[in-house]
Specification:
This protein is α/β, with parallel strands linked by helices. The protein has helices at 2-13, 24-27, 31-39, 67-72, 85-97, 146-156, 171-180, 196-206, 228-234, 239-250; strands at residues 19-23, 46-50, 78-80, 102-105, 129-132, 136-141, 159-162, 165-167, 181-191, 213-218.
Length: 254
């Protein structure tokens, strides 16, 4: 892994556009090379990060629980998290065309069954999309948790934002959601500590916005083997768990 990233950096120095396809957990081993050999030089190397999030039978050694946390703090990085296979194609295209270091993280397994658009049109960097208009509660979802967020939102009558990008964040969308809702809920299949939700909290603070925020993500422990759906339910990240956590938090609102 260390050699792969340094080799990719060398290729980029010579005008080639390398793509490093790598598991999230294996990328951990090449953290120094990512920072010093790629990001420091602002080289156009794209990381296609597989096994981002829970991985079922692959177990805790392969669970990509931390990549958003350890990537987000690196200068020059573009980080994207697609919500389905169609968005994955378009965000991979976006990252490949980006003139700098980029990462697209996606989970193990098959897609959601989304309609795949012809062509490979890039998306606007740093722009999310509002998938559902609701009231009072806004679910700010990243990547694989957009789908359960949409299901939970039906019962909660909540808005749902598919953020698409973890870095840079869509500050205009965050400001709009904060101004029109009473509670913001961040959702990610990554450790809560230092993850996408933490980035949302930092952004709101920088914008001078004060609003209650609930952060939902992977707990501060290693998750053992199991069926992915059952593991997400155990972590409270299926639609039922999301709805339950939000309803509990609503009771604390002024």
């Amino acid at each position: 892994e260390q050699h792969a990233l340094t080799f990719a950096a060398g290729l980029a120095c010579e005008g080639i556009k390398p793509v490093v396809a790598i598991y999230s957990t294996f990328l951990q081993r090449a953290y120094d090379q990512l920072i010093h050999d790629i990001a420091l030089q602002d080289l156009p190397v794209m990381l296609a990060i597989d096994r981002a999030g829970l991985v079922g039978a692959d177990g805790p050694t392969h669970a990509g629980s931390f990549d958003l946390s350890f990537l987000r703090c690196i200068p020059n990085m573009l980080i994207a998290a697609p919500s389905d296979e169609n968005e994955c194609r378009r965000l991979l295209t976006t990252a490949f065309l980006h003139n700098g270091p980029s990462a697209v993280r996606y989970p193990r397994g098959s897609g959601k069954g989304a309609v795949v658009e012809p062509g490979l049109e890039p998306l606007e960097i740093g722009k999310g999309i509002l998938r559902r208009h609701g009231r009072d509660i806004a679910l700010i979802a990243f990547g694989s948790l957009v789908a359960p967020a949409l299901t939970a939102a039906e019962a909660l009558e909540a808005s749902v934002a598919d953020m698409r990008f973890v870095k840079p964040l869509d500050l205009e969308l965050l400001r709009e959601l904060a101004q029109t809702h009473r509670l913001l809920v961040t959702l990610e299949e990554n450790a809560v500590a230092g993850g996408a939700g933490a980035g949302v909290a930092e952004a709101l603070s920088a914008l001078g916005i004060q609003i209650p925020v609930l952060h939902l993500g992977l707990p501060d422990r290693f998750i053992e083997h199991g069926d992915v759906a059952a593991m997400l339910a155990e972590c409270g990240l299926d639609a039922t768990g999301i709805e339950r956590a939000v309803r509990q938090r609503i009771t604390l609102l002024p």
